[in-house]
Amino acid sequence: MTNTDASVKDTRQVLLDVKGLKKYFPIRSGFFQKTTGYVKAVDGVDLFIREGETLGLVGESGCGKTTTGRAILRLYELTDGTVHFRSESGEMIDLSGLSKDEMKAIRREMQIIFQDPFSSLNPRMSIERLIAEPLVVHEIGDRASRHKRVVELLEAVGMSGQVAARYPHEFSGGQRQRIGIARALALNPRLIICDEPVSALDVSVQAQVLNIMKDLQEQMSLTYMFIAHDLSVVEHISDRIGVMYLGRIVELTHSEQLYQNPRHPYTEALLSAIPYADPDMVQEEILLEGNVPDPANAPPGCHFHPRCLYAKPICSKEIPQLVPTKDNPEHFVACHRAEELELIPVQPPERLLKQVGG
Amino acid sequence: MDTSINTSQIEVEYNVEESAQIATPWQLMRWKFMNHRLAVLGLVVILCLYLVTAFCEFVAPYDPSYRTGHPLVRPNWPKLVTDGGFKLKAVTYGLTGSRDPVTFQRVYVADTSKEYTVRLFVRGSSYQLFGLIPSDLHLFGSPDGGPVYLMGTDRLGRDVFSRVVYGARISLSIGLIGVLISLMLGILLGGVSGYFGGIVDTIIQRTIEIIRSFPTIPLWMTLSAALPPNWSPILVYFGITIILSLVGWTGLARVVRGRVLSLRNEDYVMAARLSGARELRVIGKHLTPSFLSHIIASTTLAIPGMILAETSLSFLGIGLKPPVVSWGVLLQDAQNVQAVALAPWLMLPGLLVVVSVLAFNFVGDGLRDAADPFSTTG
């Protein structure tokens, strides 16, 4: 699936277009709950996803990946920015201006897979009721046809239809996550936001779930936005990858480009931290100093400049814009020095494994 | 790293388990509860008590205000004697009262010449069961008017056992109705407080803290002193119930708020909202079922508090007043040392308070353990 020739312009239509997305959470304190500041969880995110592709979103915990995903689904009210979604008739609908009922209709097209398979399934509901709930809410079909659909969905995620009468506590994490996927698929959505769907699972089960997701994508022509903090998982499934740092996207490009031609110092540092299962490999790890700054009190200019090895005075003054690089219109970087730096590329982990023979 | 999985492998993994029957959460809860022996015992006691209150006209041998003419008789149980042959029968003897010349205490001597038979299901004073069905059948008694005083008689010669049976009707129902009112207030205010949060939550929580910081007895005293003195006993009964629940709802509201708060942000609630479910469906189908068992348990634990509160209020003379019969009203007769020394059977209603409160507590404990999916007891 990975587009190897990065310079070829992708002609697929844009399904989701996010511009200037901001989500601030007010900090309240004192008896009267006065707002004393804002946590800028998402501070101006621009991204787009083409129909049928997978966009990976990586970053450290607390950088706003999950909030971005949930804000796109309007689970949170947006502070600022627009989210355009291509409806089936082909027109781009601005989600931020929709009423509750209009939103309910459009939500049939976009679903979410949660990170924690234990808290995302109501323990008091049978698998059948859980998966059929979206159908019941949207008044689709009768009892018999809904049951048929539940069995169909369970089989699509590799489970027997006979488990429908059981309860979530009888299943393992991987099985529950597959049930979660079945529920997300119930309404035949076109976009699925996957919020770290495998990070709570055993490594052995991760690949299984990822492969099911890949198969489903091909069968049902799904579009994924895949949120994760594990670069090797993201590389496995994504066509393009966006790297987030403290509420902003710092680099966005095709997966191979990201590994072989990183243009942002933060990406370089992230890539150098990927562990490789090869004892002979000498790896030069770039250790970042300090911690991720407090999103309520972010540094001025480029958010990354206090930890950046290549920072210049301009970096602490001006916010760098996410713009395409000169040689590749599909490679977006938000760095003042993107064009001049020589950063260290790495082999994508999957490729490396193949070479080693793993 | 080609890890595409073979789906047939997964199918096999399930076929092994499919033969096993799976219990629903409610079934699991019932089994766990059944393993809690004290709780089951408590449940049996409670069911018996409420059965008695439902049919108290039938269970009580006398009318609660009927004066037998024998004041302060100690408990006088029927005796089993042989009827000359091998047939056993229960009898009770006539009582002749006199004063002890030394202590001036009233003493009764059984007059064996007057023998009365005692039988089950006898015809006695007439009554209307549930206020509808006229009847004169009693569970036990002496058809020819012999004295049967299982718990003795009081100063005015009224049968204490009959009065305790009638008193149970008031004392046990005040707990149920009071808790029902508290529950409604608690779920409403606690739910609102937890679901909406913010300033609403702050106001409700501070109000609860203020109510809880009042010493309860003076608060009850003030409130019940405010009840108009010309109210009929029934109105006073409801007045007292409302006073008790006005204080009692705070605990339940806290429980509900805590549960709603912790569940509100669960992923499955978000998933339900995302599939388009409205607030009411989310609260009804997702939130309530997951704390229903906790609510039932804490409600059961709140009932004995209500029963005790009614008893203490009536005991102090500021709750229900005679002619209404409740356990607290009955215990008023046992307030002085004289009664305790000369007629200790007047304290028997207190024993029933203890038994019913303990029974409710055991059942509440059992329910709480059963409702907790992480408990390992039982």
Sequence-ordered SSE layout with sheet pairings:
The complex is a heterodimer of chains A (358) and B (378).
Chain A: E1 14-29, E2 34-50, E3 54-58, H1 65-72, E4 80-86, E5 92-94, H2 100-106, E6 110-113, H3 127-137, H4 143-156, H5 173-185, E7 191-195, H6 203-220, E8 223-228, H7 231-237, E9 240-245, E10 248-254, H8 255-260, H9 265-272, E11 323-324, E12 332-333, H10 349-356
Parallel strand pairs in A: 3-8, 3-9, 6-7, 7-8
Antiparallel strand pairs in A: 1-2, 1-4, 4-5, 9-10, 10-12, 11-12
Helix pairs in contact in A: 3-4, 3-5, 4-5, 5-6
Chain B: H1 7-18, H2 25-35, H3 37-54, H4 56-59, E1 79-82, E2 88-99, E3 106-129, E4 133-141, H5 160-196, H6 198-213, H7 216-225, H8 233-264, H9 267-274, H10 279-315, H11 327-332, H12 337-342, H13 348-371
Antiparallel strand pairs in B: 1-2, 2-3, 3-4
Your description of this structure?
The complex is a heterodimer of chains A (358) and B (378). Chain A has 358 residues and is α/β, with parallel strands linked by helices. Helices cover 28% and strands 22% of the residues of chain A. Chain A contains ten helices and twelve strands. Chain A has helices spanning 65-72, 100-106, 127-137, 143-156, 173-185, 203-220, 231-237, 255-260, 265-272, 349-356, and strands spanning 14-29, 34-50, 54-58, 80-86, 92-94, 110-113, 191-195, 223-228, 240-245, 248-254, 323-324, 332-333. In chain A, strand 7 (191-195), helix 6 and strand 8 (223-228) form a beta-alpha-beta unit. By secondary structure, chain B is α+β, with helices and mostly antiparallel strands. Chain B has a four-stranded antiparallel sheet with strand order 1-2-3-4. In chain B, a hairpin with a 5-residue loop joins strand 1 (79-82) and strand 2 (88-99). The longest helix of chain B has 37 residues, at 160-196. The two termini of chain B are 48 Å apart. The chains are: A alpha/beta (358), B alpha+beta (378). Chains A and B meet through helix 3, helix 6 and helix 10 of A and helix 1, helix 6, helix 9 and helix 10 of B.
